[in-house]
Amino acid sequence: MRLGRPSPRELAERAQIAGEASAEAAVQAAHATAEPLAPGTDLTAAAFFDVDNTIMQGASVYHFVRGLAARNFFTTGDLVRFAARQLKFRVGGAEDMDDVHNSREEALSFVAGRTVAEIVALGEDIYDESMADKIYAGTLALARRHLEAGQRVWLVTATPVELASLIARRLELTGALGTVAETEDGVYTGRLVGELLHGPAKAAAVRALAASEGLDLRRCTAYSDSANDVPMLSVVGTAVAVNPDGALRDIARRRGWQIRDFRTARKAARIGVPSVLGAGALAGAVVGGLAVRRKLR
């Protein structure tokens, strides 16, 4: 075991804390407007989408950090380290856990001392500059089909929850589960609440959100490109591997999970949306006549 590395039990506890904190933040953000759910909303089914290389080409946090670098938030050397990890991520086709933790913890450390409002405002500009043209049209089409079926759609990502929520809003999705960075009086401390929302923490967040929102996970769908998201994919009734790395492709084939690849226009054209939504989407019509209420805290 690497010196100073948390034990499996400690990691599991941190993952649970991170998941619960992320779900709480997501619910509060979604309910902030106090608007009721639209008539016909399917109350028990939803879809969960990973972000990096699933709905967006590359790592969202890298695009964000690159935008911060252009605004002199840190040095060129810091950006080079991020670029090296991003290249390894994209060429290797799989995430290295140490690289994931190091890069995102560094990204959070860079915002320490900054206000949430400042970072969100910067995120709006950076999204337009570096992220909007990185969205996979095929994956976004899947997300919108879930919305059309009356299901809510949530992003699930290790990216800080404020940035994740911004992406979800720009894509006109329901909301986002993301890493919760600690704040004091609206200022980032540079510390995390629990752990990064990665691996088991994503599964914990999805379970916590489902419990809060009354979702039946057997009727829910999850999408990801990475074998690191197998915990999240395993807690829902329908798992879909999107632009999968080699390990996830093998797992998907063994488990009979659906596979979608939007990394080329030819493959994107072969999208099979109806089979992904399945009978769960059709059940949305059943609850169409029910009175829909939103649970407020």
Describe, in short, the structure shown.
The protein has 297 residues and is α/β, with parallel strands linked by helices. It has helices spanning 8-31, 60-70, 76-92, 97-110, 116-131, 137-148, 161-170, 200-213, 230-234, 246-255, 265-268, 273-282, and strands spanning 46-50, 152-160, 175-179, 181-184, 187-192, 221-224, 238-242, 258-260. It has a domain at 8-58 and 135-287: Rossmann fold (3-Layer(aba) Sandwich).
The CATH architecture category of one domain equals 3-Layer(aba) Sandwich
Major β-sheet annotation: 6 strands, parallel
The number of helices is 12
Class by alpha and beta content: alpha/beta
End-to-end distance: 43 Å
- What is the alpha-carbon Rg in Å? 18 Å
Based on Cα principal axes, name the global outline.
globular
Supply the CATH superfamily name of one domain.
HAD superfamily/HAD-like
Which regions are unreliable across 5 or more consecutive residues at pLDDT < 50?
Answer: 89-95, 266-275, 278-297
Percentage of residues in strands: 5-15%
CATH class of one domain reads: Alpha Beta
Oligomer status: single chain
Strand order of the biggest β-sheet: 3-2-1-6-7-8
Write up what this structure looks like.
The chain is α/β, with parallel strands linked by helices. The chain has a domain of 204 residues: Rossmann fold (3-Layer(aba) Sandwich), CATH 3.40.50. It contains 12 helices and 8 strands. The strands form 2 sheets. It has a 6-stranded parallel sheet with strand order 3-2-1-6-7-8, with helices on both faces. α9 links the parallel β6 and β7. α1 packs across α8, α2 packs antiparallel against α3 and α6 runs parallel beside α12. The radius of gyration is 18 Å and the shape is globular.
